[in-house]
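Project outcomes to date are best conveyed with an example. Our students and postdoctoral researchers have been running inverse folding experiments weekly, and each run begins with a structure described purely in tokens. The record below, which covers 363 residues, was selected by the lab manager from last quarter's runs and is presented without edits.
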């Protein structure tokens, strides 16, 4: 309910006028008394009129001063309120912005693929934290890299005499056999596959200069479910790269001393072929005793790319005839992909791979 303060204000004004008028009249009387004593008598009405005029002037000044004070107070209150609401608005804007940022980070953290050391994208392009450790320039070190490629009969001198042999000319010639089923794993989800690869095989997949797709992850997982643990345990990481300085047709390579497979864009067209071949390189680098037996049996003790010794018998492919390392990798690849044929044409190599590499598992 609103109250009418007009009567109260009028009363206060009346009291003020009365008090000031009273003071003015008293002053006029004193002046008159002094004039009488000095025989300088003036008209009392004039003195009274002068006193009233002064009183009215004082009242007007007081009212004006009060009005100015009230106006200043109102302005201060208005300014204070304006500043307060401005700060309040700014506070809520900052709070809203921070809340949006938190929500965005939360959504990004659980959108698609996540991980610590992997950086993978599925077919929808979900990205993770990447660690690009694929240095294609490292392949220039002599006899440190093993490679796979396809349909290239003139690549043997691509990178000069100090490079590793470019790759298998027979890659892709054989039909890839079906890989294993991924029981208990959601193969439609990239993160599920990444987690399974790490937990079941202790293999980390990561992005390098190229990214994994969901279909590539699925093919990799299904392949590994068919291979014996004694074989897969020698590979610790598979990194996707766009290409390598070893050549445009190189599907992948491995550096000696590092249980890591580099898989190029070209290699993804024959995933099983390239992965088994390159994982075989990881195996012989890790299992030097087994590889020494291989060299003694099939290469007369020849060591690596340029050691002395003669090839005892032909490899399963022309590329396998390059050296003992490629012979080993190609024989393991053929064992998995064309086991029945290899058993007929290269029984000695077949039995070696079966006993020392694949732990008796046949395909």
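After processing, the design step wrote out the following sequence:
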């Amino acid at each position: 309910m609103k109250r009418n303060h007009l009567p109260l204000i009028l009363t206060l004004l009346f009291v003020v006028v009365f008090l000031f008028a009273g003071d003015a009249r008293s002053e006029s009387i004193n002046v008159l008394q002094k004039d009488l004593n000095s025989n300088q008598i003036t008209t009392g009405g004039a003195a009274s009129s002068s006193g009233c005029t002064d009183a009215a002037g004082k009242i007007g000044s007081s009212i004006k001063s009060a009005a100015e004070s009230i106006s200043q107070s109102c302005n201060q209150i208005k300014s204070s309120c304006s500043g307060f609401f401005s700060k309040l608005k700014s506070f809520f804007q900052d709070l809203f912005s921070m809340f949006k940022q938190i929500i965005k980070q939360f959504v990004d953290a659980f959108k698609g693929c996540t991980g610590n050391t992997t950086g993978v994208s599925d077919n929808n392009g979900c990205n993770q934290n990447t660690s690009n450790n694929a240095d294609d320039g490292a392949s220039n070190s002599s006899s440190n890299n093993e490679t796979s490629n396809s349909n290239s009969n003139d690549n043997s001198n691509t990178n000069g005499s100090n490079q590793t042999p470019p790759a298998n000319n027979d890659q892709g010639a054989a039909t890839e056999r079906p890989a294993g089923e991924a029981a208990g794993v959601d193969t439609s989800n990239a993160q599920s596959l990444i987690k399974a690869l790490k937990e079941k095989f202790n293999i980390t997949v990561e992005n390098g200069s190229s990214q994994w797709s969901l279909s590539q992850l699925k093919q990799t997982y299904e392949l590994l479910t068919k291979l014996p643990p004694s074989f897969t345990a020698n590979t610790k990481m598979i990194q996707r790269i766009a290409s390598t300085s070893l050549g445009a047709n190189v599907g992948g390579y491995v550096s000696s001393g590092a249980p890591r497979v580099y898989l190029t864009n070209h290699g993804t067209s024959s995933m099983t072929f390239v992965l088994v071949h390159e994982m075989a390189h990881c195996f012989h680098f890790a299992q030097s005793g087994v590889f020494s037996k291989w060299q003694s049996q099939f290469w007369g003790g020849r060591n690596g790319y340029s050691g002395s010794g003669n090839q005892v018998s032909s490899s399963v492919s022309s590329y396998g005839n390059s050296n003992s390392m490629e012979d080993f990798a190609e024989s393991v690849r053929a064992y998995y992909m064309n086991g029945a044929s290899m058993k007929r044409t290269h029984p000695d190599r077949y039995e070696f791979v079966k006993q020392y590499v694949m732990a008796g598992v046949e395909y």
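The first strand starts at residue 145 and ends at 149. Residues 39-49, 109-181 have pLDDT under 50 and may be disordered. The training component of this project remains on track.
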